[in-house]
Amino acid sequence: MQVSSLNEVKIYSLSAGRSLPEWLSDRKKRALQKKDVDIRRRIELIQDFEMPTISTKIKVSRDGQYIMAVGTYKPRVRCFDTYQLSQKFERCLDSEVVTFEILSDDYSKIVFLQCGRFVEFHSQHGHYYRTRIPKFGRDFSYHYPSCDLYFVGASSEVYRLNLEQGRFLNSLQTEASESNVCDINPVHFLFAMGTAEGKVECWDPRTRNRVGLLDCALSSVTADTEIDGLPSISALQFDGALNMAVGTSTGQVLLYDLRSSNPLIVKDHHYGLPIKSIQFHRQLDLIISADSRIIKMWNKDTGKIFTSMEPEHGINDVCLYPNSGMLMTANEAPKMNIYYIPVLGPAPKWCSFLDSLTEELEENPESTVYDDYKFVTRKDLENLGLAHLIGSTLLRAYMHGFFMDIRLYHKAKMMANPFAYEEYRREKIRQKIEETRAQRVQLKKLPKVNKELALKLIEEEGEEQQITRKRKQKNLPSLLKDDRFKVMFENPDFQVDEQSEEFRLLNPLVSKISEKRKRKLKILEELEAQGQEEEEEPEGKASDAESSESSDDEKDWVEEVRKQRKLLRQEEKLKRQERFKEDQQTLLKPQFFEIKEGEEFRSFKDSAKKQKLMKKTLEDRLKLEEKLGTLNVSDTTVGSKQATFKLKKSEQQRKQQEAEKQHRQERKTLRRPAGHLKSKRGRGRLFH
User: Fold this and answer.
1) Measured between alpha carbons, how far is 204 from 212 in angstroms, rounded to an integer?
2) CA 408 from chain center: how many Å?
3) How many helices (H) and strands (E) would you count in the chain?
4) Taking the complete model, does pTM exceed 0.85, yes or no?
5) 599 CB contacts (<8 Å, ≥6 apart)?
6) What structural domains does the chain harbor?
7) Are the C-beta atoms of residues 102 and 62 closer than 8 Å to each other?
8) Residue 545 has what pLDDT?
């Protein structure tokens, strides 16, 4: 159960908290209640007081025993018995219900107006009869003396269905194109209907003639209200014989005395949403009006807010339980909310335990834990001189700081800063002086970064304002006030360098204008330093001078470009001369290089050749390798290419190969005479 308080009016939400699914067993429900504190503390006033998806309308029978609600999906009606605190029955319907009415004291006679132009009658046992009306209906009311049902909807006619004779009677012809709501006064049975044009037509059922017309759309528009279109009537409710409350589609509630065409009071919800429901609370002279976002309770004589409620989900309907402080709502959610407000009245008889429960809560209010503690950071502790308490029981570590007793905090603050009152007094005096200064003519404060650019934007903005005033156009937003360009006037990294080559070539005429702005900047800085006020703006040029300047813009531009180029060339020459002098002054020192092991130093040309070779592309290097013979590229039978490489040999390998080659040649020369002799001997034997 959640407790909220607004204007010292406590509101108890009895349906707050999570609901348990129906398919859970009793054993699992008991186990969850033991584990979860929120489930254990929740109050389930009526068992399964919810709809599958959303609930659209909710009403209480005249005897107060039954609460009936309709919703989706699928379209259905559920009846809850308050004496048993549970659901009595559920009936599914063929189409969604627009609205319904309980004709009897209990649930035995119910009429449903459905979306498909159907009117369905239910009795105690279930479905009884079904008929259709010519046009789509939006609301209906029951006239008890004649047993007539009055239907209003997307038509200029009001259809009458007599339940005693069981037939349609002659309809009432109105001036409205469509009607949204209707109601019948419970005292003198005056029939009133709210139209789409923002008017209320009042009819006498006895003579079937119109007896009054109220233009609520015109009366709802006041000096404080802002509306986009023509307000239509979205809610209508009678209170007694003379009072009537009307709700509009733009969020206004008008209270009328039937003897006057002007409203007694106009209350605006300030949300621009259509009013869904209006209820009267006679004991406290309150009006309970609700749109899809908020429920407001306000005094019908003064219009002063009594209290308000904002549920989590959108509101479709509000029902006040008679002679009690209980309020029920149909929402855009499965669960239907139940609120108990003890100030409005006692709890109903079937839940009288709520009074004792709320009294106990008021007698023993739960003070929040953090009311007696102050959150401080390490820096705050150092300023108070309490850094030595870190790690003791007087400080409780929490996130990036500590919690400490509020009494200890106040004592330490008084000791650390005994002149706090004097500082407070000085601050107040300074604020008053600033308030008086604000009434005077203030200087234009320029940012620290890009002052000339800011001054240029201010001048351009002033010129644009003059043009827009003449043409009656809307002013465009300023770059200085735009958060997207805020950093450009705060961060010095975004400072415009006017001495750069790009800036000087792209903006050749900026030099003249910048000189004027620099003069203005000097004047403003002097005035700021002296504390004087700028009463008169600097005089501008005559119109003739401006026209002459605009005609000679092209010549000036060409001349300025030439001058800038000459200056840039001169600056480049000076820079080259300075570099040449610096090079002459610097002494060249010899540089030593270390050669890797196993390599011989030949010359610097080899390293230069290697660097040039590395800079070449892969294609050029492959061609060079082919010329040298270290690479061989050939086509295969499949169509692809085959490349074979010969690795380059180092100096050591080359020397070793040369030594091996020389050794082989020496061995060959030594072996030749022995072989020659053997061959000769063989020959002699053969021919001997």
Assistant:
1) 9
2) 41
3) 15, 34
4) no
5) 650, 651
6) 2-363 (2.130.10.10), 373-416 (no CATH)
7) yes
8) 43
